[in-house]
UniProtKB/TrEMBL annotation:
Topology relative to the membrane: Multi-pass membrane protein
Protein name: Energy-coupling factor transporter transmembrane protein BioN
Source organism: Gordonia insulae
InterPro entries assigned to the protein according to its UniProt record, in alphabetical order: ABC/ECF_trnsptr_transmembrane
Signal peptide region: none
Chief location bin: membrane
Length: 200
C-alpha cells in the first residue's frame, strides 16, 4: 500500500497544531505559492520553504519522496503539455507549483488524524445545519475524498508496476485507460457501500 497521506504519529510542532489551523494554513500557503511563484528563483525559495516544513514535521527525505513518486508520470505529462504549448520555463514552474501543493497537502495528512480533521470540518459546518445543509453527508463526502486521494495514487502505482512487468513503454493508452477503469470500479464500490448503509 502506498505510504502517501498515511498518518505518522509524532510530537512535533505540526503534530500539535489544531487541524483547523493546519487546513486553513494549507489553503493560504498553496494560494500564496500559486500566485507568487512566477520565476525559477521564486520556485527554488518555495522548495526550500516546503523542505523546512517537512523538517519541522520530523518527516525524512525518504518519506517525502514517497509523497511525490506516484505523481511522476502525471507531472511528466503536464510538463510535456506545457512545453508544447508554452515553454520549458513555464513548464517547470507549473509542475513545481503542483508538486509543492501535493507535498504540502501530504504534510497535513501525515501529521493529522483523519478523524480529527473530519471532526474539525463538521464543527465548522455546524452553523449551516439551521439552513438545512446535510453536514453529516458533507463530512462523509470529505472522508471519501480524503481516502480516495491515496487510493488513486496506489492504483496508478499498481498500473505502472504492471506495465513495467510486461515490458511496455509508458503512454496514454497503457496508463490512462487501466487507471480510469480501476477508478470507476472503485467508485462503484463506494456507491454500493453507501447504498447498503442507506446513504444513497
Amino acid at each position: 500500500m502506498s505510504a502517501l497521506g498515511v498518518y505518522r504519529p509524532g510530537n512535533t510542532v505540526l503534530h500539535r497544531l489544531p487541524p483547523g489551523v493546519k487546513l486553513i494554513g494549507l489553503g493560504v500557503v498553496i494560494l500564496v505559492i500559486s500566485l507568487a511563484v512566477r520565476s525559477l528563483t521564486a520556485l527554488g525559495i518555495a522548495v526550500v520553504g516546503v523542505a523546512a516544513v517537512y523538517a519541522l514535521a520530523g518527516i525524512g527525505p525518504v518519506t517525502a519522496w514517497r509523497q511525490l513518486r506516484p505523481m511522476r508520470w502525471v507531472l511528466l505529462l503536464i510538463f510535456v503539455f506545457q512545453v508544447v504549448f508554452t515553454d520549458w520555463h513555464r513548464a517547470l514552474i507549473v509542475c513545481g507549483v503542483l508538486a509543492l501543493s501535493v507535498a504540502l497537502a501530504a504534510v497535513v495528512t501525515l501529521t493529522t488524524r483523519t478523524t480529527d480533521m473530519l471532526d474539525t470540518i463538521t464543527r465548522a459546518l455546524g452553523p449551516l445545519r439551521r439552513f438545512g445543509f446535510p453536514t453529516d453527508l458533507i463530512a462523509i463526502a470529505l472522508a471519501l475524498a480524503i481516502r480516495t486521494i491515496p487510493l488513486m495514487v496506489e492504483i496508478v502505482r499498481q498500473v505502472d508496476e504492471a506495465r513495467q512487468a510486461r515490458g511496455l513503454r509508458p503512454g496514454p493508452r497503457i496508463l490512462v485507460a487501466p487507471v480510469v477503469l480501476a477508478a470507476l470500479r472503485t467508485a462503484d464500490g463506494f456507491a454500493d457501500t453507501l447504498t447498503a448503509r442507506g446513504l444513497d
